[in-house]
Amino acid sequence: MNRMLGIVAVAALIGAMACRKSGKDKTANLVINLQQSAITINQVDSADVVFRKIGTNTQVRERFVKSMQNLEAPLQSLAPGTWNADIEVYTKAVNQQSNQFVIIKPIQVTEQVADTQVPGPGATSGNGWLKRHVKASPGNEVVLIIPDDVYDSYFEVRSKEQGLHAFGIQREAINVNYVVDLKTWACTNTCLNAEGRIADINHFMPFTQTILAEPWTRNDISISVFNNKSEELLNYKRTWNK
Residue 141: what pLDDT? Predict the structure, then answer.
């Protein structure tokens, strides 16, 4: 009888220790909830976040992992305080085209272990998320990121090789039979940074401000990428109609 009581006591002690350990080991996560989102967990190719601590130059990059209908990134490496979470979610490519969803979410990190929830993106830009299109050349030699929302002035170019490509972008707004505004951007790889990338939201800002203020019936964005032999690697055109 005494031996049985001893076994029960040891089992209870082990159980209590396990409970305490599991509580201690629980970690807080940044959670993107996709249950009510326009994209499903199976459509997600990858997702990343850069945490930027307000008032400092501190940055921490984390990759999201899939968990049921959520995307989760750990918060335990962040010091208590206010952070901005720069989130990028990429869908799987179909015919070398996919979507990017981005959001900047302020979060508060405390000593308390608790998840921070972010609703997933909608079908179009909205609820804080911006939707953009990702177009790649064969082999992902060059990747373009361009707006889904006509009033978004952002564009991004990524290239695996430096000095091998030339890029051209044109945005044009038309109202019935006259041009409301037209703006272009062109460069060789010399405009890319050391990582082979350029991201710009300012160049086409005057254009988007014009189409916000003036009536238009059609908007076009045209993009071409050529290699150093003047061979076209990638061509993309998007039209918005009113």
Answer: 84
Question: What pairing do the DSSP bridges indicate for beta strands 178-188 and 44-53?
Answer: unpaired
Cα–Cα distance for residue pair 27/22, rounded to 1 Å: 10
Question: What was the pLDDT predicted at 13?
Answer: 42
Contact 206, 182 (CB under 8 A): no
The mean pLDDT value of the chain amounts to: 87
- Please state which CATH number belongs to domain 137-241: 2.60.40
DSSP letter at 122 equals -
Task: In whole angstroms, give the CA distance from residue 46 to residue 52.
Answer: 20
Q: What are the backbone angles phi and psi of residue 128, rounded to the nearest 5°?
A: 95, -20
List CB contacts of 214: < 8 A, sequence separation 6 or more: 173, 175, 180, 181
- Provide the residue ranges of all domains of the chain, joining segments of one domain with +: 29-130, 137-241
DSSP calls for 170-216? EEEEEETTEEEEEEEEEEEGGGS-TTSEEEESSTTHHHHHHHHHS--
